[in-house]
Protein backbone atom coordinates (compact mmCIF):
# COMPACT_ATOMS: atom_id res chain seq x y z
CA UNK A 1 0.00 0.00 0.00
CA UNK A 2 1.47 3.36 -0.94
CA UNK A 3 0.33 6.88 -1.47
CA UNK A 4 1.91 10.14 -2.61
CA UNK A 5 0.57 13.40 -1.24
CA UNK A 6 1.73 16.94 -1.89
CA UNK A 7 1.87 19.04 1.27
CA UNK A 8 1.69 22.85 1.42
CA UNK A 9 5.35 22.68 0.33
CA UNK A 10 5.41 21.72 -3.33
CA UNK A 11 8.59 19.74 -2.70
CA UNK A 12 7.32 17.57 0.16
CA UNK A 13 6.21 14.02 -0.50
CA UNK A 14 4.78 11.22 1.61
CA UNK A 15 5.07 7.53 0.84
CA UNK A 16 3.39 4.72 2.80
CA UNK A 17 5.62 1.69 3.35
CA UNK A 18 4.58 -1.81 4.45
CA UNK A 19 6.96 -4.58 5.56
CA UNK A 20 5.86 -8.12 6.47
CA UNK A 21 6.48 -9.47 9.94
CA UNK A 22 7.48 -12.82 8.50
CA UNK A 23 10.37 -11.20 6.62
CA UNK A 24 11.35 -9.28 9.73
CA UNK A 25 11.46 -12.49 11.80
CA UNK A 26 13.65 -14.19 9.20
CA UNK A 27 16.08 -11.27 9.29
CA UNK A 28 16.09 -11.20 13.11
CA UNK A 29 16.89 -14.91 13.17
CA UNK A 30 19.70 -14.46 10.65
CA UNK A 31 21.21 -11.58 12.64
CA UNK A 32 21.05 -13.51 15.92
CA UNK A 33 22.84 -16.45 14.29
CA UNK A 34 25.61 -14.15 13.12
CA UNK A 35 25.89 -12.62 16.59
CA UNK A 36 25.99 -16.10 18.19
CA UNK A 37 29.14 -17.02 16.26
CA UNK A 38 31.25 -14.43 18.06
CA UNK A 39 29.34 -13.37 21.19
CA UNK A 40 31.19 -13.82 24.48
CA UNK A 41 29.43 -14.62 27.77
CA UNK A 42 30.74 -15.81 31.13
CA UNK A 43 30.48 -19.60 31.43
CA UNK A 44 30.33 -20.27 27.69
CA UNK A 45 32.99 -20.73 25.07
CA UNK A 46 32.85 -18.28 22.11
CA UNK A 47 30.26 -19.49 19.62
CA UNK A 48 28.68 -21.94 22.07
CA UNK A 49 26.20 -19.57 23.76
CA UNK A 50 22.66 -21.05 23.44
CA UNK A 51 20.45 -19.22 20.92
CA UNK A 52 17.81 -18.66 23.59
CA UNK A 53 20.35 -16.73 25.68
CA UNK A 54 21.59 -14.81 22.64
CA UNK A 55 18.00 -13.86 21.81
CA UNK A 56 17.36 -12.67 25.35
CA UNK A 57 20.43 -10.42 25.40
CA UNK A 58 20.60 -9.25 21.78
CA UNK A 59 17.06 -9.74 20.48
CA UNK A 60 16.03 -6.10 20.88
CA UNK A 61 19.08 -4.85 19.01
CA UNK A 62 18.62 -7.41 16.22
CA UNK A 63 14.92 -6.61 15.83
CA UNK A 64 15.53 -2.85 15.70
CA UNK A 65 18.24 -3.30 13.07
CA UNK A 66 16.07 -5.70 11.04
CA UNK A 67 13.08 -3.33 11.01
CA UNK A 68 15.33 -0.39 10.09
CA UNK A 69 16.95 -2.31 7.23
CA UNK A 70 13.57 -3.51 5.91
CA UNK A 71 12.09 -0.03 5.96
CA UNK A 72 15.20 1.44 4.30
CA UNK A 73 15.06 -1.21 1.57
CA UNK A 74 11.32 -0.74 0.96
CA UNK A 75 11.72 3.04 0.91
CA UNK A 76 14.57 2.80 -1.60
CA UNK A 77 12.49 0.60 -3.89
CA UNK A 78 9.54 3.02 -3.83
CA UNK A 79 11.80 5.97 -4.55
CA UNK A 80 13.43 4.19 -7.49
CA UNK A 81 10.04 3.09 -8.85
CA UNK A 82 8.84 6.71 -8.89
CA UNK A 83 12.19 8.12 -10.00
CA UNK A 84 12.32 10.61 -7.11
CA UNK A 85 15.42 12.65 -6.20
CA UNK A 86 15.47 12.87 -2.41
CA UNK A 87 16.77 16.01 -0.70
CA UNK A 88 17.90 15.42 2.88
CA UNK A 89 16.73 12.50 5.01
CA UNK A 90 13.18 11.13 5.23
CA UNK A 91 11.18 11.27 8.45
CA UNK A 92 9.84 7.77 9.14
CA UNK A 93 6.77 7.43 11.39
CA UNK A 94 4.78 4.27 12.26
CA UNK A 95 1.16 4.04 11.10
CA UNK A 96 -1.69 2.80 13.22
CA UNK A 97 -4.14 0.14 12.05
CA UNK A 98 -1.66 -1.87 10.00
CA UNK A 99 -2.93 -5.01 8.28
CA UNK A 100 -2.34 -8.27 10.12
CA UNK A 101 1.17 -9.60 9.63
CA UNK A 102 2.63 -6.26 8.54
CA UNK A 103 4.26 -3.14 9.93
CA UNK A 104 3.34 0.09 8.15
CA UNK A 105 5.19 3.41 8.11
CA UNK A 106 4.88 6.80 6.50
CA UNK A 107 8.01 8.38 5.05
CA UNK A 108 7.91 12.17 4.71
CA UNK A 109 10.64 13.82 2.69
CA UNK A 110 11.49 16.55 0.20
CA UNK A 111 12.51 16.17 -3.42
CA UNK A 112 14.73 18.34 -5.56
CA UNK A 113 12.85 20.90 -7.65
CA UNK A 114 12.63 20.73 -11.41
CA UNK A 115 14.79 23.56 -12.72
CA UNK A 116 14.44 25.43 -15.98
CA UNK A 117 16.75 28.40 -16.27
CA UNK A 118 14.85 31.47 -17.43
CA UNK A 119 15.57 33.79 -20.34
CA UNK A 120 18.79 35.72 -19.70
CA UNK A 121 18.48 37.89 -22.80
CA UNK A 122 17.15 40.94 -20.93
CA UNK A 123 19.68 40.74 -18.08
CA UNK A 124 22.38 43.42 -18.16
CA UNK A 125 25.93 42.68 -17.00
CA UNK A 126 28.58 45.38 -16.78
CA UNK A 127 32.10 44.08 -17.15
CA UNK A 128 34.64 46.46 -15.53
CA UNK A 129 37.46 47.29 -17.95
CA UNK A 130 40.89 48.45 -16.80
CA UNK A 131 44.34 48.25 -18.35
CA UNK A 132 47.23 48.27 -15.89
CA UNK A 133 49.81 50.85 -16.93
CA UNK A 134 52.62 52.91 -15.44
CA UNK A 135 50.24 55.09 -13.43
CA UNK A 136 48.77 52.06 -11.63
CA UNK A 137 52.24 50.64 -10.97
CA UNK A 138 53.35 54.02 -9.57
CA UNK A 139 50.33 54.15 -7.25
CA UNK A 140 51.03 50.68 -5.97
CA UNK A 141 54.71 51.42 -5.40
CA UNK A 142 53.67 54.53 -3.50
CA UNK A 143 51.47 52.39 -1.24
CA UNK A 144 54.38 49.99 -0.69
CA UNK A 145 56.65 52.92 0.19
CA UNK A 146 54.13 54.25 2.72
CA UNK A 147 53.91 50.81 4.31
CA UNK A 148 57.65 51.04 4.93
CA UNK A 149 57.63 54.58 6.32
CA UNK A 150 60.19 55.39 9.01
CA UNK A 151 60.19 58.49 11.21
CA UNK A 152 62.90 60.98 12.04
CA UNK A 153 62.94 63.64 14.78
CA UNK A 154 61.73 67.02 13.49
CA UNK A 155 62.47 70.37 15.16
CA UNK A 156 59.20 71.97 14.10
CA UNK A 157 55.47 72.07 14.80
CA UNK A 158 53.56 68.81 14.34
CA UNK A 159 51.76 68.44 11.00
CA UNK A 160 49.62 65.93 9.11
CA UNK A 161 51.51 62.64 8.70
CA UNK A 162 53.89 63.25 11.61
CA UNK A 163 54.23 60.77 14.44
CA UNK A 164 53.96 62.39 17.85
CA UNK A 165 54.51 61.01 21.34
CA UNK A 166 52.41 62.71 24.03
CA UNK A 167 51.26 62.52 27.62
CA UNK A 168 47.57 63.30 28.10
CA UNK A 169 45.02 63.54 30.87
CA UNK A 170 41.29 63.79 30.22
CA UNK A 171 38.78 64.96 32.84
CA UNK A 172 35.01 64.85 32.90
CA UNK A 173 33.41 67.14 35.49
CA UNK A 174 36.88 67.62 36.98
CA UNK A 175 37.55 63.90 37.45
CA UNK A 176 39.90 61.75 35.34
CA UNK A 177 37.64 59.36 33.41
CA UNK A 178 38.33 55.72 32.58
CA UNK A 179 40.82 55.45 29.71
CA UNK A 180 41.47 59.19 29.85
CA UNK A 181 45.12 59.14 30.86
CA UNK A 182 48.31 57.89 29.20
CA UNK A 183 52.04 58.58 29.08
CA UNK A 184 54.42 58.25 26.14
CA UNK A 185 51.45 57.63 23.85
CA UNK A 186 52.41 57.53 20.13
CA UNK A 187 50.13 58.11 17.14
CA UNK A 188 50.35 59.40 13.58
CA UNK A 189 48.39 62.57 12.88
CA UNK A 190 45.83 61.85 10.17
CA UNK A 191 46.00 58.05 10.47
CA UNK A 192 42.60 57.95 12.17
CA UNK A 193 43.72 56.33 15.41
CA UNK A 194 42.52 59.37 17.37
CA UNK A 195 39.41 61.51 16.99
CA UNK A 196 39.77 64.34 14.48
CA UNK A 197 39.27 67.08 17.11
CA UNK A 198 42.03 65.55 19.23
CA UNK A 199 44.42 65.43 16.27
CA UNK A 200 43.58 69.06 15.43
CA UNK A 201 44.50 70.12 18.95
CA UNK A 202 47.91 68.43 18.71
CA UNK A 203 48.65 69.79 15.24
CA UNK A 204 50.86 72.90 15.40
CA UNK A 205 52.55 72.04 18.70
CA UNK A 206 56.31 71.47 19.01
CA UNK A 207 58.11 69.03 21.27
CA UNK A 208 57.96 70.34 24.85
CA UNK A 209 54.79 72.39 24.31
CA UNK A 210 51.54 71.73 26.15
CA UNK A 211 47.90 72.60 25.67
CA UNK A 212 44.57 72.41 27.46
CA UNK A 213 41.37 72.16 25.41
CA UNK A 214 37.74 71.06 25.55
CA UNK A 215 36.48 68.29 23.29
CA UNK A 216 33.04 66.74 22.74
CA UNK A 217 32.86 63.04 21.93
CA UNK A 218 30.57 61.95 19.08
CA UNK A 219 27.07 60.84 20.08
CA UNK A 220 27.78 57.35 18.69
CA UNK A 221 31.16 56.96 20.41
CA UNK A 222 31.84 53.32 21.33
CA UNK A 223 32.44 54.10 25.02
CA UNK A 224 28.91 54.86 26.18
CA UNK A 225 30.01 56.77 29.29
CA UNK A 226 31.70 59.32 26.98
CA UNK A 227 29.26 59.39 24.03
CA UNK A 228 28.09 62.96 23.47
CA UNK A 229 29.99 64.21 26.55
CA UNK A 230 32.26 67.27 26.69
CA UNK A 231 35.57 66.71 28.48
CA UNK A 232 38.78 68.65 29.06
CA UNK A 233 42.17 67.37 27.93
CA UNK A 234 45.66 68.42 29.02
CA UNK A 235 48.37 67.30 26.62
CA UNK A 236 52.16 67.56 26.58
CA UNK A 237 53.99 66.87 23.31
CA UNK A 238 57.20 64.97 24.00
CA UNK A 239 58.47 64.29 20.47
CA UNK A 240 57.57 65.21 16.89
CA UNK A 241 58.83 62.92 14.12
CA UNK A 242 58.50 63.51 10.40
CA UNK A 243 57.75 60.63 8.01
CA UNK A 244 60.59 59.42 5.79
CA UNK A 245 59.60 57.43 2.72
CA UNK A 246 62.18 55.03 1.24
CA UNK A 247 63.53 55.78 -2.21
CA UNK A 248 62.60 53.40 -5.01
CA UNK A 249 66.12 52.07 -5.45
CA UNK A 250 68.01 48.79 -5.33
CA UNK A 251 67.62 48.46 -1.54
CA UNK A 252 63.88 48.99 -1.84
CA UNK A 253 63.66 46.39 -4.64
CA UNK A 254 65.63 43.88 -2.56
CA UNK A 255 63.32 44.47 0.43
CA UNK A 256 60.44 43.36 -1.83
CA UNK A 257 62.13 40.14 -2.91
CA UNK A 258 64.03 41.21 -6.04
CA UNK A 259 67.38 39.62 -5.19
CA UNK A 260 69.53 41.62 -7.62
CA UNK A 261 67.87 44.95 -6.74
CA UNK A 262 66.80 45.60 -10.34
CA UNK A 263 64.12 48.34 -10.13
CA UNK A 264 62.87 47.61 -13.66
CA UNK A 265 62.33 43.97 -12.64
CA UNK A 266 60.50 45.18 -9.52
CA UNK A 267 58.13 47.23 -11.68
CA UNK A 268 57.52 44.22 -13.92
CA UNK A 269 56.68 42.03 -10.93
CA UNK A 270 54.37 44.68 -9.45
CA UNK A 271 52.63 45.05 -12.81
CA UNK A 272 52.18 41.29 -13.14
CA UNK A 273 50.74 41.01 -9.63
CA UNK A 274 48.45 43.96 -10.29
CA UNK A 275 47.17 42.44 -13.53
CA UNK A 276 46.31 39.21 -11.72
CA UNK A 277 44.57 41.11 -8.92
CA UNK A 278 42.66 43.30 -11.39
CA UNK A 279 41.58 40.20 -13.29
CA UNK A 280 40.43 38.54 -10.06
CA UNK A 281 38.40 41.58 -8.99
CA UNK A 282 36.80 41.96 -12.40
CA UNK A 283 35.85 38.28 -12.36
CA UNK A 284 34.37 38.65 -8.87
CA UNK A 285 32.23 41.64 -9.88
CA UNK A 286 30.99 39.92 -13.04
CA UNK A 287 30.29 36.72 -11.10
CA UNK A 288 28.18 38.63 -8.58
CA UNK A 289 26.07 40.09 -11.38
CA UNK A 290 25.75 36.69 -13.08
CA UNK A 291 24.52 35.08 -9.87
CA UNK A 292 21.97 37.87 -9.38
CA UNK A 293 20.77 37.35 -12.95
CA UNK A 294 20.38 33.58 -12.49
CA UNK A 295 18.33 34.01 -9.33
CA UNK A 296 16.20 36.71 -10.96
CA UNK A 297 15.21 34.63 -14.01
CA UNK A 298 14.91 31.27 -12.24
CA UNK A 299 12.52 31.52 -9.29
CA UNK A 300 12.47 28.13 -7.57
CA UNK A 301 11.43 26.71 -4.23
CA UNK A 302 14.32 24.99 -2.48
CA UNK A 303 14.19 22.03 -0.08
CA UNK A 304 14.06 23.16 3.54
CA UNK A 305 16.38 20.32 4.49
CA UNK A 306 19.14 21.67 2.24
CA UNK A 307 18.68 25.21 3.56
CA UNK A 308 18.87 23.98 7.16
CA UNK A 309 22.03 22.01 6.42
CA UNK A 310 23.62 25.02 4.72
CA UNK A 311 22.62 27.30 7.63
CA UNK A 312 24.26 24.86 10.05
CA UNK A 313 27.43 24.87 7.95
CA UNK A 314 27.54 28.68 7.79
CA UNK A 315 27.02 28.86 11.56
CA UNK A 316 29.86 26.39 12.07
CA UNK A 317 32.10 28.46 9.79
CA UNK A 318 31.25 31.55 11.86
CA UNK A 319 32.14 29.71 15.08
CA UNK A 320 35.50 28.64 13.66
CA UNK A 321 36.19 32.20 12.54
CA UNK A 322 35.46 33.52 16.03
CA UNK A 323 37.72 30.88 17.56
CA UNK A 324 40.54 31.85 15.20
CA UNK A 325 40.13 35.39 16.52
CA UNK A 326 40.67 34.09 20.04
CA UNK A 327 37.04 34.21 21.19
CA UNK A 328 35.33 31.45 23.15
CA UNK A 329 32.30 30.42 21.13
CA UNK A 330 30.65 28.69 24.08
CA UNK A 331 30.11 32.19 25.47
CA UNK A 332 28.79 33.51 22.12
CA UNK A 333 25.64 31.82 20.80
CA UNK A 334 25.71 31.41 17.01
CA UNK A 335 22.19 30.62 15.78
CA UNK A 336 21.94 28.94 12.34
CA UNK A 337 18.71 30.88 11.73
CA UNK A 338 20.83 34.03 11.39
CA UNK A 339 22.18 32.61 8.13
CA UNK A 340 18.89 31.33 6.69
CA UNK A 341 18.59 33.97 3.94
CA UNK A 342 22.20 33.57 2.86
CA UNK A 343 21.85 29.79 3.00
CA UNK A 344 18.73 29.81 0.82
CA UNK A 345 20.47 31.90 -1.84
CA UNK A 346 23.51 29.60 -1.81
CA UNK A 347 21.32 26.51 -2.16
CA UNK A 348 19.34 28.11 -5.02
CA UNK A 349 22.50 29.02 -6.88
CA UNK A 350 24.00 25.60 -6.29
CA UNK A 351 20.96 23.89 -7.80
CA UNK A 352 20.70 26.31 -10.73
CA UNK A 353 24.42 26.06 -11.52
CA UNK A 354 24.36 22.26 -11.31
CA UNK A 355 21.55 22.22 -13.89
CA UNK A 356 23.44 24.61 -16.17
CA UNK A 357 26.64 22.57 -15.94
CA UNK A 358 24.80 19.33 -16.78
CA UNK A 359 22.69 20.80 -19.58
CA UNK A 360 25.48 22.74 -21.28
CA UNK A 361 28.56 20.59 -20.68
CA UNK A 362 30.24 23.21 -18.51
CA UNK A 363 32.33 20.71 -16.53
CA UNK A 364 35.94 21.61 -15.69
CA UNK A 365 38.38 20.34 -18.30
CA UNK A 366 41.83 19.17 -17.10
CA UNK A 367 43.61 21.83 -19.14
CA UNK A 368 41.42 24.55 -17.61
CA UNK A 369 42.22 23.37 -14.09
CA UNK A 370 45.94 23.25 -14.91
CA UNK A 371 45.86 26.77 -16.32
CA UNK A 372 44.07 28.11 -13.22
CA UNK A 373 46.50 26.46 -10.80
CA UNK A 374 49.52 27.71 -12.76
CA UNK A 375 48.06 31.23 -12.85
CA UNK A 376 47.53 31.23 -9.07
CA UNK A 377 51.07 29.96 -8.59
CA UNK A 378 52.63 32.92 -10.40
CA UNK A 379 52.45 35.13 -7.32
CA UNK A 380 54.56 32.65 -5.30
CA UNK A 381 58.32 32.59 -5.08
CA UNK A 382 58.41 28.99 -6.36
CA UNK A 383 55.35 28.48 -8.62
CA UNK A 384 56.14 24.81 -9.29
CA UNK A 385 55.93 24.05 -5.57
CA UNK A 386 52.34 25.35 -5.37
CA UNK A 387 51.36 23.41 -8.50
CA UNK A 388 52.72 20.20 -6.96
CA UNK A 389 50.89 20.99 -3.71
CA UNK A 390 47.53 21.25 -5.52
CA UNK A 391 48.04 18.07 -7.51
CA UNK A 392 49.23 16.09 -4.48
CA UNK A 393 45.73 15.83 -2.98
CA UNK A 394 42.43 15.27 -4.86
CA UNK A 395 40.62 17.47 -2.31
CA UNK A 396 42.82 20.47 -3.16
CA UNK A 397 42.40 19.93 -6.88
CA UNK A 398 38.63 19.72 -6.39
CA UNK A 399 38.70 23.28 -5.06
CA UNK A 400 40.37 24.47 -8.26
CA UNK A 401 37.88 22.47 -10.34
CA UNK A 402 34.99 24.18 -8.53
CA UNK A 403 36.44 27.59 -9.42
CA UNK A 404 36.78 26.59 -13.08
CA UNK A 405 33.16 25.39 -13.16
CA UNK A 406 32.01 28.73 -11.73
CA UNK A 407 34.10 30.54 -14.36
CA UNK A 408 32.51 28.41 -17.10
CA UNK A 409 29.03 29.25 -15.83
CA UNK A 410 29.89 32.96 -15.66
CA UNK A 411 31.20 32.89 -19.24
CA UNK A 412 28.11 31.02 -20.49
CA UNK A 413 25.66 33.38 -18.79
CA UNK A 414 27.61 36.44 -19.99
CA UNK A 415 27.31 35.15 -23.56
CA UNK A 416 23.52 34.93 -23.22
CA UNK A 417 22.94 38.21 -21.34
CA UNK A 418 23.47 41.80 -22.44
CA UNK A 419 27.10 42.06 -21.33
CA UNK A 420 29.11 45.21 -22.02
CA UNK A 421 32.47 46.56 -20.92
CA UNK A 422 32.57 49.65 -18.75
CA UNK A 423 35.73 51.61 -18.02
CA UNK A 424 36.46 51.76 -14.30
CA UNK A 425 38.98 53.77 -12.31
CA UNK A 426 41.83 51.89 -10.65
CA UNK A 427 41.03 53.20 -7.16
CA UNK A 428 37.36 52.31 -7.54
CA UNK A 429 38.10 48.73 -8.63
CA UNK A 430 40.68 48.23 -5.87
CA UNK A 431 38.39 49.69 -3.21
CA UNK A 432 40.54 52.77 -2.62
CA UNK A 433 37.99 55.38 -3.71
CA UNK A 434 37.29 58.05 -1.13
Automatic annotation (TrEMBL):
Record-level GO cellular component terms: cytoplasm
Protein keywords: Cell cycle, Cell division, Chaperone, Cytoplasm, Isomerase, Rotamase
Record bears the keyword Chaperone: yes
Boundaries of every PPIase FKBP-type domain copy: 161-246
Enzyme nomenclature, EC number: 5.2.1.8
Entries under InterPro entries matching the protein: PPIase_dom_sf (IPR046357), PPIase_FKBP_dom (IPR001179), Trig_fac (IPR005215), Trigger_fac_C (IPR008880), Trigger_fac_C_sf (IPR037041), Trigger_fac_ribosome-bd_bac (IPR008881), Trigger_fac_ribosome-bd_sf (IPR036611), Trigger_fact/SurA_dom_sf (IPR027304)
UniProt keyword Cell cycle, yes or no: yes
Biological processes per GO annotation: 'de novo' cotranslational protein folding; cell division; protein transport; protein unfolding
Superkingdom as given in the UniProt entry: Bacteria
An annotated Gene Ontology molecular function: peptidyl-prolyl cis-trans isomerase activity
Reactions accelerated catalytically: [protein]-peptidylproline (omega=180) = [protein]-peptidylproline (omega=0)
Record's subcellular location: Cytoplasm
Gene3D superfamilies documented for this protein: 3.10.50.40, Trigger factor ribosome-binding domain, Trigger factor, C-terminal domain
Pfam families per UniProt: FKBP_C, Trigger_C, Trigger_N
Function of the molecule: Involved in protein export. Acts as a chaperone by maintaining the newly synthesized protein in an open conformation. Functions as a peptidyl-prolyl cis-trans isomerase.
Similarity comment: family membership: Belongs to the FKBP-type PPIase family. Tig subfamily.
Alphabetized PANTHER family for the sequence: TRIGGER FACTOR CHAPERONE AND PEPTIDYL-PROLYL CIS/TRANS ISOMERASE, TRIGGER FACTOR-LIKE PROTEIN TIG, CHLOROPLASTIC
Comment, domains: Consists of 3 domains; the N-terminus binds the ribosome, the middle domain has PPIase activity, while the C-terminus has intrinsic chaperone activity on its own.
Name under which the protein is recorded: Trigger factor
Lineage: Bacteria, Pseudomonadati, Pseudomonadota, Betaproteobacteria, Rhodocyclales
Gene (UniProt): tig
